[in-house]
């Protein structure tokens, strides 16, 4: 999780709705997806990222992704917003 620790310093949108919006609008440079999140959600965002050419990085658990983003709860996905 060393790379993900940098998520706290980057401009990040956390959560399913915000992540999908950033990808659809073309503002996401990279998306992090928790492997233990709901498959219906993760398969949709991964397909959308592939269509839009956005890099997808898998994180083992929602808890670890949430911690990497600096929040105390789990997160299914998060998007790094282009500067």
Largest sheet: 4 strands, mixed
Could you report the average pLDDT, rounded to the nearest whole number?
91
Give the assembly state of these chains: single chain
Counted by DSSP, the helix tally is: 3
Shape: globular
Q: Indicate the percent of residues in helices.
A: 25-40%
Task: Provide a descriptive summary of the structure in words.
The chain has 83 residues and is of the alpha+beta class. The chain is built from three helices and four strands. The chain has a four-stranded mixed β-sheet. Strand 2 (28-34), helix 2 (39-52) and strand 3 form a beta-alpha-beta unit. Helix 1 (16-25) runs parallel beside helix 2. The termini are far apart.
Kindly summarize this structure in a few lines.
With 83 residues, the chain is α+β, with helices and mostly antiparallel strands.
